[in-house]
Amino acid sequence: MHVDGDLGGGDLSDLAVSALELLQWKEVEGAAALVAPLHTLLSALLPRLGSIAAPHGGDAADEDASGDEQEGRAGGAAAAAGSAAAGYASQLALLALRRLAPGGDAAAAVVARGALPEGFDVTLVLAVLAAAPDAALRNAALGLLESLARGAPEAMLGHVLEAMRLIQHSAATTDDSHSQAAAASALAAVVPAWVAAGRDAAELWASLVGALGAVRPHRRLALLATLLRALPQESGLPAALLVMLQRAAADAAAPKPAPKAAPKAATPKRGAKADKGQGREEGAEQLPEGPPEHEWLPELAAALCEQVPAAERLAALSSVLEASAAGQEPQRPLPRLAVIFATSQLKSKPLAAAARAESAAAAAAGAGMGAGADAGAAAAPVLAGCLSVMQQALLHLQLLHPTGGAEDDDDELLTLDERAGEADSAAALASPLQQQQPPKLSKKQRSVNAATRGLYGLLAALRDLMDPTEFLRALLEISDHPSEERRHCGRLRCSRPARRSRVSAPRGWAMRWRR
After folding, report:
1. Which of 135, 354, 386, 407 is the most buried (most CB within 10 A)?
2. Nearest to 142 by CA among 180, 116, 100
3. What pTM value is reported for the model?
4. CA-to-CA dists, residue 3 to 34, 41, 42, 43, 136, angstroms
5. pLDDT by residue (tens digit) across 287-333?
6. How is residue 368 annotated by DSSP?
7. Are 96 and 55 in contact (CB under 8 A)?
8. Phi and psi angles of residue 345, each rounded to the nearest 5 degrees, phi first
9. Residue 344 in contact with residue 362, Cβ under 8 Å?
């Protein structure tokens, strides 16, 4: 099979292309012998790859061009034709290799699954994927990559991150459904090798989430859901939410760049070149800069949560709350964002409906109303998830107020409702000037106050989500737990003295559940 030839007006002979086309449907004896020549052909074509859809020939303006210009344009057209032929031949070679690869067509695969046959080169496939100029060639490379990953996952272990990067680039540069499906299939195929080797799934999530800014908004959730389905439960949603909230918190806390000065107007050009240049400039201006990550990442994380059942979602929220406060104070941006996100999830209608239904089933089972013991067992995951989220919220509160409510400095950490009540009672004694002066609090104190209000909002959402009996039982379970940390955390909430303290709940918080 010759790469160079005089036929067809390009760098590839028609005979070679015909042979590659024949391999797409014809069964060949001794097909294993074709693997090495096909790889050699791909290596030779790699430097000259061009788009299969590249336009050929000149336009009407060629008639007025000089002889030298016409010769130059003719040479450029011939080079474009050769480049397009190389791209088409590469696509055919990739498709033929996919049929021969482990995990390819059962009738044509030359080896069994689990081993990479001699001659197959994952690095070359990734190089073709990186250099592919159009969707057709890129999808063919993705298909071969998927077959190699499914048939020989051990061979993919050293290439997972590079494959993820190229798959994300493909998803960002093409928006048609077929290309997106090819990228999703390849993504799902390369992940098991990473998991089987015991690698950290957070690296995969960080790689994918970091590339979402270049992906069209309506395609982002599908990529996240594909990776979520390919990972085990413990390294799926919890790791994804933590990575997304970390990026959102870091983006929100990052200093905003100064606005760029408007570029100077260029001197107008004339002729066809000016029209083409103006078209490129207008096309560049039409690409809008997307919103910052902290505006759309939490919303995308919420949409990802809807892909899993209620019990799994609650378990993930508890894990995120625990991981967000690890090694840092709860009033820092990440723990506060995690609390806000968890509160919004607890208020979601699907989760509330699932919790109410399972709580009612558990109550019916406990009362012997015919639901049986299976209904109570079915409700256990949701109730256990609520209990776990409650425990993490109370632990956050204890980290904010380690003394458990000291009497000193009470006025510095009052809740918002208490401040409003004291302001009303002292309004008659305060002068207009004093009324206009807000209390002076340090930045840390304001952060602690905001974090405390957020945690009480989280507990209020739990109270509204759970049955009142289950809510009180959960508080008692935490207060009576053998663990000293959990017991002290529960006692901090359940055995509250009547006096005002540093962690007093907002007025009316403990009474609404009784109604």
Report:
1. 386
2. 180
3. 0.73
4. 15, 7, 10, 10, 21
5. 456 788 888 999 999 999 999 988 899 999 999 999 988 877 888 89
6. T
7. no
8. -70, -40
9. no
